[in-house]
Amino acid sequence: MTSAIKGPSQSDVQYDGSNLRVAIVHARWNRQVVDALVAGAITKLKERGVKEHNIVTQSVPGSFELPFAWSRVITGSRVQSGASVTDLLGGLGVSTPNPQSRSTTPAPGSASTLINMPQGPFDAVIAIGVLIKGSTMHFEYICDSVSHGLMKVQLDTGVPVIFGVLTALTEDQALERAGLGREEARSHNHGEDWGIAAVEMGFQGRRWSEGKFT
Ligand code: DLZ
């Protein structure tokens, strides 16, 4: 039996993610598969040193929405990094709370959440979606526009985008690629590869933009 030649080969270097900030934007269609892929990506990001508070996860209804969300998340992280907490709070029309009066878990988007929010532009974004072919042409149109949209965002913003969109012809194909395949079809979770790729591209992207090539 010949050994498999497909799939990513490991880099000689293990890149350090400890100074990186990474966003994951995922679709909610085909949620079981999406959740496994997101979990795989997060596991590898953490293994490579990305700190939990530097991993930001956002969701959108379906894969078609990924390029727009991605573009806004990247722009937003730049605005965030250039703004002080007071700017952010002022922009939202809220006043700074007295820290002593802070109660338990802050509501998302509340003033105290913003104060605790890590800031800085994202070094990489992973877009995760699962498209499964149906009986109409919907699949083809979405696959085409999402892949072109994501490439455009990547080149327009200069922030590496990891293409975590599965375009499967069957449910089984999707499950297998998320490590959820049935018995002998159980395979590798591609989300893990995307986590590793995000660290490499985030790390290298920063170095390349500083003119460092060794
Ligand atoms: C409409 C649709 C269909 C048919 N299939 C999928 C799919 O397999 N995976 C996915 O992520 N999203 C799907 N969607 C939803 C679209 O991506 C989009 O959310 C809607 O058309 C609204 O713009």
Description of the molecule:
- Helix 1 crosses helix 7 and helix 2 packs parallel to helix 5.
- Helix 5 links the parallel strand 3 and strand 4.
- With 214 residues, the chain is α/β, with parallel strands linked by helices.
- About 15% of the residues have low confidence.
- Helix content is 44%, strand content 14%.
- The protein has a domain of 136 residues: Rossmann fold (3-Layer(aba) Sandwich), CATH 3.40.50.
- The N and C termini lie far apart (39 Å).
- It has a four-stranded parallel beta sheet, sandwiched between helices.
- It is globular and about 45 Å long.
- The structure holds ligand DLZ.
- This is Dimethylribityllumazine synthase.
Structural key phrases:
alpha/beta; four-stranded parallel β-sheet; 7 helices; 4 strands; globular
CATH class of the domain at 26-71 and 125-214: Alpha Beta
Radius of gyration, Cα only, in angstroms? 19 Å
CATH fold topology of the domain at 26-71 and 125-214:
Rossmann fold
Structural class based on helices, strands and sheet pairing = alpha/beta
Q: Which molecules are bound in this entry?
A: ligand DLZ
Name of the CATH homologous superfamily of the domain at 26-71 and 125-214: Lumazine/riboflavin synthase
- Give the strand order, joined by hyphens, for the main sheet: 2-1-3-4
- Give the rounded overall mean pLDDT: 83
Set out the fold topology:
Blueprint: E1 22-27, H1 31-47, E2 55-60, H2 66-82, H3 85-91, H4 111-116, E3 124-132, H5 138-157, E4 161-168, H6 171-177, H7 190-209
Protein name: Dimethylribityllumazine synthase
